[in-house]
């Protein structure tokens, strides 16, 4: 109430139509939630009555007929005063005024749920009788969607038992929300885990829509029977056969339920949609934020009494409790994983064949897990696909490339020289390799540079190099304009005639040079200032290769240039990197020349044959 004596105080007016419009278009995702709100009120009313009379009946009935929908509950009911206070006052809830401890028992808290019914109904009739005082007469509250309502005392015989009946008269155009199958489907979807029996009656048939206690709260004859019941339940509600099921019983966090391991690899970005029930009432089947991001390989079905809903009741309210629950569930998933590693390597292997990416993502932040998973996580290496643990045993200095193409470029050569290299180019892998020294003592990790490879290749004796001096000089002058130096080494396998070694820095430098050449003066000057002294690419010719030795014997200078270009092109193709336009042009030219030379030779031979 305002204090200022000179001012007149007024009460807010509520435009009910506007409010309902707001709720239906901006708060609730669909009018279907009206069934949830009715069920919720009925359940809360039964819970409230059971607090004062533990033997009170609990069954909730929904009846669908020509007139619309009716829901009966044997709950706490309302006195006439309650009707004015709670039903007719938007935003007031009997459940919030209660003690904190009691509030935890109720589903509702906002005092707006009943309004959801106006998204489908033009009239709401509530017939109620309070269980708190047998002397209190029954009351009828009749509300219309234009915002008017009336209250009438019932005659003594009109309602003998405590409890409430809510009747909805459909709005024009909203008839489909009252179709019997839809109503029982919604009651089952939202309320299958509610603690009290709910039935839907329509067309002379009665369907029970509750299926409680939840599958995880039932007694089983054995652990195997429990597991198969949980698996079957997951398949029914989530629609897939899980690789495994991880049961949650996190008492502190007030969470019961299970996580189901997806049978296919999941996209980490589009994951984390879980089916969450709050005290048995479905919140949503696409709830996010329940598990840590890394746990994208599971979908959960849980029931909790600690988490709070947002006002739309379609998501979880982000608070400290949710953060604590997320952490507790994350620990549980992690424990399952480590337990699998310790006891069931076969199942772990099956899991990793689908979800190794998720585990790698997780291991980056969790050294214990990384240590546990080390013997199981396979990486692409110069020793083939092996685990890091196995690889580190053979190569105490673990060399890692930062891109897939760098690995391709040097893997064969490095392994032929006895250098062990891990391909760190895939998601999370170089990060994990760099953590290796922290979990495996004595191991060091080094980025693999081209210098490591060249240093491992045998130098060629002076005399042998001198014998090839002419060939090398032609090779250097041919490739210099392409930003590539030429050196001669002896290495295995002899089948590789030349190796193109390149670093990212060298590639960047080449791009800069090319851009500078094409740019106008100002740009050329700016780009010129950026010129770096980074190493250039290298073509390493293999002295052990018979092809190289034969080519070195060519005397025709033009043919020698083409041969060098062909060697360069072949080495470049081995790197699997996209070719620059200059390189493609060079390759075409070299092969044209060589073909021309070969066909000319064939013609000369044929002529010689003809003369003979
Ligand atoms: N079936 C019922 N039996 C007894 N009281 C009821 C019933 N339905 C509604 N009420 C009373 O009406 C009040 C308002 O109900 P409403 O559904 O609008 O909000 P709420 O359930 O309190 O909160 P929420 O908006 O979170 O659902 C309730 O707090 C309760 O006191």
TrEMBL record:
Classification via InterPro entries: HATPase_C_sf, Hsp90_fam, Ribosomal_Su5_D2-typ_SF
Transmembrane segments: none
One Pfam family hit: HATPase_c_3
Superkingdom of origin: Bacteria
SUPFAM superfamilies on file: ATPase domain of HSP90 chaperone/DNA topoisomerase II/histidine kinase, Ribosomal protein S5 domain 2-like
GO molecular function, one term: ATP-dependent protein folding chaperone
Record keywords: ATP-binding, Chaperone, Nucleotide-binding
Sites where the protein binds ATP: 37, 41, 73, 164
Family in the record: Belongs to the heat shock protein 90 family.
Record protein name field: Molecular chaperone HtpG
